[in-house]
Amino acid sequence: MPPAPVPGWVELTFTDGTLTPGQSTGPIQLRHHRHSWSDIDERDDPSWLAATGQWTENGRITLDVDGVREFGDISS
Predict the structure, then answer these.
(1) Residues in the chain with pLDDT values less than 70
(2) Which residue of 3, 15, 42, 47 has the lowest C-beta tally within 10 Å?
(3) If phi over 0 gives left and psi between -120 and 50 gives alpha, with beta otherwise, what is residue 61?
(4) Global pTM value
(5) Rounded to whole angstroms, what are the CA distances from 32 to 11, 39, 49, 50, 57?
(6) Upper half-sphere CA count for residue 13 (Cβ side, 13 Å)
(7) Is the dihedral of CA 31, 13, 7, 34 positive or negative?
(8) Residue 14 to residues 25, 28, 66, 75, Cα–Cα distance (Å)
(9) Exposure b/e, 33-54, CB count within 10 A at least 16 = b
(10) pLDDT value at position 37?
(11) DSSP collapsed to 3 states, the chain
């Protein structure tokens, strides 16, 4: 769980399988929506480049493997 304050987060957990070094899962797509299906305002999301409609790397998105931070820094 991220340290407070955080407006929200998504936790994606894999419960089976093993990747050896150099292997890849391939693309992972995760989609979310509001209960009302209304638009989500992404203007304050530094990983979303609205001018180009593209995503970019965001160090605030973290990856933990077995409780060890492998990517990202929630404080940045």
Answers:
(1) 1-8, 42, 46, 50, 59, 74-76
(2) 15
(3) beta
(4) 0.41
(5) 12, 11, 18, 18, 19
(6) 6
(7) positive
(8) 11, 12, 11, 25
(9) eeeeeeeeeeeeeeeeeeeeee
(10) 87
(11) CCCCCCCCCCCCCCCCCCCCCCCCCCCCCCCCCCCCCCCCCCCCCCCEECCCCEECCCCCCCEEECCEEEECCCCC
Both tokens of 56, joined, read 């970019």
Residue appearing with tokens 């089976």: 16
Which residue bears the tokens 């955080």?
6
As given in the structure block, the two tokens for residue 33 are 């929506």
